[in-house]
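To: structure subgroup
Subject: Chain for Friday's discussion

All,

I'm putting the inputs and outputs inline so they're searchable in the archive.
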Amino acid sequence: MSDEFISGLRSDLVEAAAREAARGRVGRVARPLRPRVWNRRVALGAAALAAAAAAFVAVVLALASPRPAETARPRIVATIATGTVPVCASFAAGRLWIADFNHQLVAVDVAGRRVARRVGIGLNPTALAAAQGEIWVRVESQTQKTPDHVLRIDSATGRTTARITVGRGPGLAADERWVWAPLTFSSSPTAGVDRIDRARGVVAGRLDLPGVAGVVSADGLLWAPTRDAAMVEIDAATGRILKRFPGIAPNVGSAMVAADRGLWLLTTQGAQIVRFAGQRIVDRVPVDPDALPLLARTSGGLWTVTGSPGSVGGKPTRLVRIDPDTHRVTGTIGLGPQAVATIIGAGRDLLVVTEIGRVIVVRG
């Protein structure tokens, strides 16, 4: 039923009630005061008619299509210059940590809209994970034959409190107890994922899973795409493999976010975001075919990025917010020629790090 029909019905009912009230007032003035004979049958009939009319109006209003709640329109609320050449980034406890190509970490106080700290690390960072007052950063070895190192840094002081030797490899993830560092085939006779004890700052074991191309962790689960395009779901407490999803995670053109007690995986080849939960694939969200391998989750939805501003005839950069339940695009923001290095969800905010080290805070 249309909104016009419902509005008209309401208006008719109000007018009818007003006319009846007016007739009642006129009658009381014009008629002489004399007792009216009580008719039980007439009274019951009038009551039944009034109840039927009220029920009809209730049914009409119930059948009317509910208006969807308006989603807050996204907007840029701050821009912070950091002076970095960003490699990767991680957010925790109100601070965005950026690993800089120039051998340093930069802490951005998002609420204060300023750079709060710079920490020199001496080597090239390749991966970063901020969690519970600690910053874990993976630095690559200087030669192909020497191992990588994982540094534990106190976020309050910037002091390095542990230095752990691991094999060469991509990525890093941290949960409540462990830090996970994948190893490549060439770096170790037994490739897999090193499990680092956060408290002791030592390698406590190795997960036997060859060919891991990266890791993310949240809600007691570790997610690892492999070089044969599988996605592996792992119990982070025990290291036990819970489920393997073959052929779903291409090694190029993908991005993943662990959230909502599962995983969101964007694949640009399939132009979709795949949702994993409960050891199964529960949804597939279509995305723009021009989407870049960048993905973030905020309280307002899923975020992707489109555009290619640095290429010949390239398209301007655009941030796209998607409702994960309805799959509808609920907001966009144009960034013009600014190229995006990474995006990170921070509660209701989206933190956008551009390739020239500018942090753009998007609310909504």
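Points worth raising on Friday:
Confidence is low (pLDDT under 50) at residues 1-7, 24-38, 59-68.
Helices lie at 3-30, 40-63.

D.
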